[in-house]
Design a protein that fits this description.
- It is a single chain.
- About 40% of the residues lie in helices and about 30% in strands.
- It starts with a helix and ends with a helix.
- Helix 4 crosses helix 9 and helix 7 packs across helix 8.
- It has about 350 residues and is α+β, with helices and mostly antiparallel strands.
- The model has no long low-confidence stretch (mean pLDDT about 90).
- The chain is globular and about 75 Å long.
Length: about 350
């Protein structure tokens, strides 16, 4: 077993069992390379990102299957030509056909605005993609923005020994929509009315106003629909609300808030934000539950779904979009968009 395989196994054991410091040290001692053992936390961070991606991606509505590809490669000589990607993901198209793609997961830490991949690694991933006849997509987590993008490798710039992509270009080339990572467009103000007071029941508590008795939302300030605290947290996760009125009635306090601008947010990003309100650790149950709450909540409010068309294209983008949306108005819009750009 290679050092990388040992580190992956230690990470998996850590996720499933409680391990004390002495046990961890005993595991790390069995890693042959001093460089690998000294950088084990970096490996763990990478594996944790992969786990988070796995849970989040599985919750997207058009993902039928995602599974890890075992990267215990033999014979050893194969590694000079092939690198097995992290996942295979199967998405459902608009015609209800299922299509598999290969996914390699990467992350960009801190405030960095670009990602670099070693050319040797990219070429070995592409060789595997060619051999299996499956398209390859790079999933990138941008820590600064808490945002995932999915980008075909053709959209990267080749710079001598590296493939490079800026955040701006990743955003413009993003094809996450093929997996059901749709966007929600809020163009009007949102009003929230919350009643606070004393209660014997278990309820969410506001640090300034106390226990929440009831919450309701409106898009016009007059017609309010009741929502629960889980749904209200969707608003708190991405909309800045301003208190415009506080009304006292006996021991109860009614607070009226309103939003101040338009918002566009993707489903995947919103799931992360929503769960972050509760400081919830990502797992498949939480991400799936959050996805259902968000979609039901947006439908209740009558907020329309939009489908992001990438601003930059490649032959692989064309291919994947056609697989996902052939024969739909979205595919027609995609073609019109690039025809207009070509004719400028």
């Amino acid at each position: 077993m290679s050092d990388i395989e040992k580190i992956q196994l230690i990470h998996d054991v850590k996720q499933m069992f409680e391990i004390d410091d002495s046990q961890m040290k005993a595991f790390i001692k069995q890693i042959d390379s001093k460089e690998h053992s000294a950088n084990i936390d970096r490996f763990f961070r990478g594996y944790k990102i992969e786990d988070h991606y796995f849970f989040l991606q599985s919750s997207l509505p058009w993902v039928k299957l995602i599974h890890a590809l075992q990267q215990n490669q033999l014979p050893e000589s194969s590694k000079s030509m092939y690198q097995v990607p992290d996942y295979m993901c199967v998405f459902e198209s608009s015609s209800l056909a299922d299509y598999p793609v290969l996914i390699e997961v990467k992350s960009v830490k801190g405030d960095k605005q670009s990602i670099k991949l070693m050319k040797r690694q990219v070429l070995s991933l592409l060789e595997y993609s060619k051999m299996t006849n499956l398209p390859l997509v790079i999933a990138i987590y941008w820590e600064k923005y808490a945002l995932w993008t999915h980008v075909p490798i053709e959209c990267f710039d080749i710079k001598k020994s590296v493939y490079k992509l800026s955040f701006v270009d990743a955003f413009k080339s993003d094809i996450s929509v093929i997996f059901g990572d749709v966007s929600f467009l809020i163009t009007s103000k949102i009003f929230r009315k919350t009643v606070y007071g004393e209660t014997d029941k278990v309820s969410a508590v506001h640090e300034e106003y106390g226990s929440i008795l009831k919450s309701s939302l409106s898009s016009n300030g007059e017609d309010f629909i009741e929502i629960d605290s889980i749904e209200s947290a969707v608003i708190d996760s991405f909309i800045d609300m301003t208190v415009v009125n506080v009304e006292l009635l006996g021991e109860k306090k009614t607070v009226l808030e309103e939003s101040s601008q338009c918002y566009v947010v993707g489903l995947g990003n919103l799931i992360l934000r929503h769960l972050n309100v509760f400081n919830a650790e990502l797992n498949s149950d939480y991400t799936q539950f959050s996805q259902l709450v968000i979609r039901g909540f947006m439908q209740k409010l009558g907020i329309p779904i939009s489908y992001a068309i990438p601003e930059k294209r490649s032959s692989e983008t064309d291919y994947l979009f056609k697989l996902a949306f052939d024969g739909t108005s979205l595919m027609a819009d995609y073609n019109k968009h690039f025809e207009k750009m070509h004719n400028r």
